[in-house]
Amino acid sequence: MTQCGRAHPPGRAGYPSPVTVVTSVNVNGVRAAAKKGFLEWLSATRADVICLQEVRCEPGQLPVELRELPGWHAVWAPAATKGRAGVALLSRKAPERTAIGFGSAEFDNSGRYVEIDLPGMTVASLYLPSGEVGTERQDEKERFMAEFLVHLTELRQRAAEDGREVVVCGDWNIAHREADLKNWKANQKNAGFLPEERAWLTRVLDEAGYVDVVRQLHPDQVGPYSWWSYRGRAFDNDSGWRIDYQIASPGLAERAVKAYVERAATHEERWSDHAPVTAVFDHRF
Asked: How is 149-173 classified by DSSP, letter by letter?
């Protein structure tokens, strides 16, 4: 576990009031992850809500152990293109409302966004396009970002009017600061650390009014990284990127009491190239 160094994840004991635990993780194919340890992690987690990205399958393709999850309410949002993207939300409490997509003609069927309403709180799972400089993939990423910023702004405004808080969790595929990736100097012209991408994420925080929960709690820490390439010894050398975020409305961010990355102890124990990012909020729905 990474949290300003290493620490064990918190239980509910020891907090002055009831808490809500939210976890986000890109599973890099949920069926493959299930064979490597995801199900064991799921049975042990103390999360109340889990945001999944890059599920890469439709609900009907899920093995029975994933299709039937006792104690969880699941909302799956697969991509129209089979075997690509896909997001999901698992919650202990039944959602009051669910929504797939954010009103985009281009992206609502791409398996990149799903949100649910729980009492007093909207939780969303996001898989932002990764992009690739000089290709249509980067153009797609830029179109997505332009539309999504509008949605984020309107979402927070609506939530404020309704007296609700918001947290948008997921793989944002952008390292915001130099402290968010190990080799930042070598990646300044690569997708994920381009100046215009980083500027867009600044707008999410400054203009749309959200807060990066992990960075708020650990303002001076390098990382904690949440993704490491499978190539070479990136994981062993902790040569990673922090691209998985929990971006919250200010009221909810103020109630964040702990945030950490559930980094596997060894390379062999990983069940994804990403690690879960977990936040604990002094809030109970």
From this structure: HHHHHHHHHHHHHHT-EEEEEEE--
Provide the token pair at 224.
């904690």
282 belongs to an annotated ligand binding site: no
pLDDT of residue 284: 73
Q: Return the CATH number at 43.
A: 3.60.10.10
Contact 69, 50 (CB under 8 A): no
48 is in an annotated binding site: no
| Number of domains into which the chain is organized | 1
Question: What confidence tens digit (pLDDT) does each residue in 52-62 have?
Answer: 999 999 999 99
In-domain check, residue 164: yes
Active site residues: 127, 171, 274
Domain that holds residue 114: 20-281
Flag whether 12 is in a domain: no
Higher pLDDT, 172 or 5: 172
pTM of the model: 0.93
171 is in an annotated binding site: yes
